[in-house]
Amino acid sequence: MTSISTNNLTKIYYSSFKRKNVQALSNLNLTVQPGTIFGLLGPNGAGKTTLIKILLGITFPTSGSASILNEDIKNYKIRSKVGYLPESHKYPSYLTGESVLRFFGRMNGNDNTNIKKEIDYLLDLVKLEKWRKTKIKNYSKGMMQRLGLAQAIINNPDLIFLDEPTDGVDPIGRKEIRDLLIELKQKGKTIFLNSHLLTEVELFTDRVAIMNKGILLKEGTVKELTEKKEEYQVQLDSEFTESDRTLMNDFSIYNIKGNAFDVKVENPVELNKLIDKLRENQKVIKSIILQKETLEEMFINLIEEAEGKKK
Ligand SMILES: Nc1ncnc2c1ncn2[C@@H]1O[C@H](COP(=O)(O)OP(=O)(O)O)[C@@H](O)[C@H]1O
Ligand SMILES: [Mg+2]
């Protein structure tokens, strides 16, 4: 069972002026496993919303195919098992939190007795019970997003699509949303979210894909994508001096700071040679750490590289 699978999914928005056609997705192949939080990252215009809209049947692919919860997206019945929080959603501002959920619950076919229990449960889950009778025009952005999340899961979906769920939300509000998403995952839900907020996504996604101009550039765990292969930081228990550096001339050592230095090696054998050399010279190694870049650094490098290649 896969939660989402796309096969050469392509979307072109045609315009009456041919040169203005937009290729929003290009031969996209992506798989999302059940019970995971998957983050689709990319700058504005990358095609993230288009992908969600195709998977939900709101717009149609130009070519290629896709399935959700093992059913072809053309089978509309599967959508009853899916939840969706659109980008910058809006509800009528005179409604209260409770009445928004009652409205969506009724649309989902719940009867009155069921709805009351469901609304109590959801308001408790998204921590809005105190504001249930407050008109949503007085809600903060974070409260609106939490209400949107409650709306997205009112049909108890297996797969939840969230389009920019934390956009415009302050840090505390973002943490609340993050905790909520982790809680939903623990309940066995699969979550697919779009975001351009990287430092955040890094904190709670199992896997991420990076997209630019409709093209999938990379996919993997955050750990896989941010590890700088063969670059290590070595820490000794005594200062690494200029004469130590001369001693270690065979290695590409840089960034020396007190007891520590960085080194780039060709392979693990070379790393072990470095360790041997240090130890032969009575150096005590305190730690060797594989270097990482942040997801944001990796993302910016990747997008710049992709843009550069195109020029
Ligand atoms: N309905 C539409 N008609 C024409 N072009 C569109 C439409 N929707 C999106 N686009 C274009 O497709 C590209 C991808 O947009 P979108 O999927 O909204 O990206 P993202 O969500 O990553 O910001 C953009 O260049 C956008 O202008
Ligand atoms: Mg978007």
Indicate the overall shape. Answer: elongated
Which structural class best describes the helix and strand composition?
alpha/beta
CATH class division of the largest domain: Alpha Beta
The CATH topology assignment of the largest domain is Rossmann fold
Total tally of structural domains:
2
Give the structure's gist in a few sentences.
The chain has 311 residues and is of the alpha/beta class. 35% of the residues lie in helices and 29% in strands. The chain folds into two domains: 4-220, 3-Layer(aba) Sandwich (Rossmann fold), CATH 3.40.50.300; 228-292, Alpha-Beta Plaits.
Please provide a written account of the structure.
The chain has 311 residues and is of the alpha/beta class. It folds into two domains: 4-220, Rossmann fold (3-Layer(aba) Sandwich), CATH 3.40.50; 228-292, Alpha-L RNA-binding motif (Alpha-Beta Plaits, 2-Layer Sandwich), CATH 3.30.70.1560. Helices cover 35% and strands 29% of the residues. The protein has ten helices and 14 strands. It has helices at residues 48-55, 97-107, 112-125, 141-152, 171-186, 198-204, 222-226, 242-247, 268-280, 295-310, and strands at 4-13, 22-32, 37-41, 63-68, 71-72, 82-85, 159-163, 190-195, 207-212, 215-220, 227-236, 252-257, 260-264, 285-292. A six-stranded mixed beta sheet has the order 6-7-8-3-9-10, with helices on both faces. A four-stranded antiparallel beta sheet has the order 2-1-4-5, with helices on one face. Strand 4 and strand 5 (71-72) form a beta hairpin. It is elongated. The two termini are 40 Å apart. The model has no long low-confidence stretch (mean pLDDT 92). The structure holds adenosine-5'-diphosphate and magnesium ion. Magnesium ion is lined by residues 48-49, 87, 163, 194.
